[in-house]
Amino acid sequence: MKIRKILVSQPEPATEKSPYFDLAEKHNLKIDFRSFIQIEPVEAKVFRKERINILDFSAVIFTSRTAVDHFFRICEEMRISVPDSMKYFCVSEATAFYLQKYIVYRKRKIFFGKSRFDDLIEVMEKHKGEKFLLPLSDMHKPDIPKKLEKLKVEFQVAILYRTVASDLSDLLSVDYDILVFFSPSGIKSLFENFPEFIQNNTKIAAFGPTTAKAVKDAKLRLDIQAPLPEAPSMTMALDQYIKLSNKSCKK
C-alpha cells in the first residue's frame, strides 16, 4: 500500500523547519497534526485534599515545562510565596531556563541533567539531604518515583495536572495510512473518540516502549517503532518505512 496520508497525534510544529515538513515534501505526503490529548489543571480546592504543604519541601523536581507551569500556577492559586531558598532540579537545561518565566534565574539554586531522568538522578545524589516535591501528571511514568525510591531520598509526588482525551468529534474518521502516537494516553484517546475503530490496513507508529506496549495491549498491530538504533527519531522511522512501502508498490 502506497503511503499518502499520515496523522500525527501532536500539535502542528510551530516552525517551518520541522522534519515532518521535510518528510512530506520528500515523499509527496499529506501530513495532518492533531493532539489526541490535552492537559487539565488540578484545581487548588482538589489539591488541598491531598494535604501536601509545598512549604514543607526544600526542593522541587521538574520533568517538563508543563510541570513548571502547574507548580507555579498552584502556588499562585493557593497564595503561596515560594522562598528564595527553594532549590530546583530540572531534567534538562532547557527546562531549567524555562524557570526564568517565574523566578529570577541567577539568584536561585538550580540544577539540571542532560535530558534523561537518569542524568538528573546523578545530580541529585549530591543533594540527598533535601526534601523533594515532584509535580507530575496523573499519567506519569511509574519508573520516575521508583528511581527516587532507589536513590533513597525523601520525596512526595504531587499530581498537579491531568492528561485527558481531546474531543476529536470534528474528525469524521481517522482514515489515514499511518497513525502516529507518542504516549499511551494517545491510544486511549483513539478508542474514546472512535470506539469502533478497526485497524485493517492502517499502519500504527509508536514512539517509546510504553507507547508500543499500549498499542499491543489495545490489540493493535505495531508497524513502526522508534526510537531504535537505526531510527532514533520518529521522522527517521517513518522515512525508512515509507521508502520500503512505496518501493514495493512500484514492483
Notes on the structure:
- By secondary structure, this protein is of the alpha/beta class.
- It has two domains: about 5-35 and about 165-250, Rossmann fold (3-Layer(aba) Sandwich), CATH 3.40.50; about 40-165, Rossmann fold, CATH 3.40.50.10090.
- It has helices at about 20-25, 45-50, 65-75, 95-100, 115-125, 145-150, 185-195, 210-215, 235-250, and strands spanning about 5-10, 30-35, 35-40, 60, 85-90, 110, 130-135, 155-165, 180, 205, 225.
- Strand 5, helix 4 (about 95-100) and strand 6 form a beta-alpha-beta unit.
- The model has no long low-confidence stretch (mean pLDDT about 95).
Secondary-structure blueprint:
Layout: E1 5-8, H1 19-27, E2 30-33, E3 37-41, H2 44-48, E4 59-62, H3 65-77, E5 87-90, H4 93-98, E6 109-112, H5 117-124, E7 131-137, H6 143-151, E8 154-165, E9 178-181, H7 184-193, E10 203-207, H8 209-217, E11 224-226, H9 234-250
Parallel strand pairs: 1-2, 1-9, 4-5, 4-7, 5-6, 7-8, 9-10, 10-11
Antiparallel strand pairs: 3-8
Helix pairs in contact: 1-9, 7-8
